[in-house]
Write a structure and sequence with these properties.
alpha+beta; three-stranded antiparallel beta sheet; globular
């Protein structure tokens, strides 16, 4: 156990972490290639040190959380932004982050490129669809950009096709209502971009890990992490949004036709 963390934890937490160490061989078996179980445990310890609310979570939910992280091959923590450990009603919940969703998209092997942005009210932004396809023009304001009004994601498939997913603030907030508000309060822009990327996943092949991650993202509830093989993903996607009004995004001008 991390000696610094050990000094800060109570006897019950120290006993739990020692018991958790017994599970390392099982955890190593579910980790994807190239992910180290010791590194995963260190990230878990750090989260317990930084987030005191995790220490009040049930041991069962903590075990399920680390198994979920191992199955996804993603270390928890705000530094990486892959997944977050969120205490809620004494339950440790794994919430998929923007970088985690981006990583899953790359793992599909079906993309040449992918990007996501948020649009601010003072940006210049235009999105429209015609017989030639989808078109995006985005010029971020240099200062005083205002509030976030939309997010979008653009993916180029290895087959050569492009696709854009656009969400306005009311669409983003509708997703937020079903999630954990503390994460949204602290990382609204990242979660808005994650939501746009998540909508692109309907165009990608559904590997088992992606299915599990999407199921986790849809429910944002902890369940038996070892019984996720039969998880099913239900699509609640809507058609692409109609042409939009003026708004914007990130530092460099972005203008692309698809």
């Amino acid at each position: 156990m991390n000696p610094v963390l050990e000094k800060e934890l109570g006897q019950g937490e120290r006993t739990f972490i020692k018991e958790l160490g017994v599970l390392k061989p099982r955890l190593a078996k579910v980790l994807p290639p190239g992910v180290d179980v010791e590194s995963m445990f260190r990230a878990f310890y750090v989260e317990m040190k930084l987030n005191h609310g995790l220490r009040d979570c049930s041991h069962q939910s903590m075990v399920e959380a680390i198994f979920r992280c191992c199955r996804l091959g993603m270390e928890p923590g705000a530094d990486l932004g892959y997944v977050y450990l969120v205490p809620r009603k004494r339950q440790c919940t794994v919430v998929l982050g923007y970088q985690g969703m981006l990583e899953l998209a790359w793992r599909s092997g079906q993309l040449k490129s992918i990007q996501a942005h948020v649009v601010y009210e003072q940006d210049e932004f235009q999105y429209y669809v015609d017989e030639m396809g989808q078109h995006v023009r985005h010029v971020p304001a240099s200062c005083h950009r205002g509030s976030i009004v939309a997010s979008y994601a653009i993916a180029q498939l290895i087959t050569g096709g492009y696709h854009v997913e656009l969400l306005y603030k009311e669409d983003i907030d509708a997703v937020r209502q079903g999630g954990y508000d503390k994460v949204w309060q602290q990382h609204y822009g990242e979660m808005a971009k994650k939501t746009a990327i998540r909508k692109l996943f309907k165009y990608l092949p559904k590997t088992q890990v992606i299915q599990e991650a999407l199921s986790l993202d849809l429910s944002e509830q902890t369940g038996p992490a070892l019984d996720m093989e039969n998880s099913e993903v239900q699509s609640n996607e809507s058609p692409p949004s109609a042409p939009v009004k003026s708004t914007s995004l990130e530092p460099d001008e972005l203008e692309q036709d698809f």
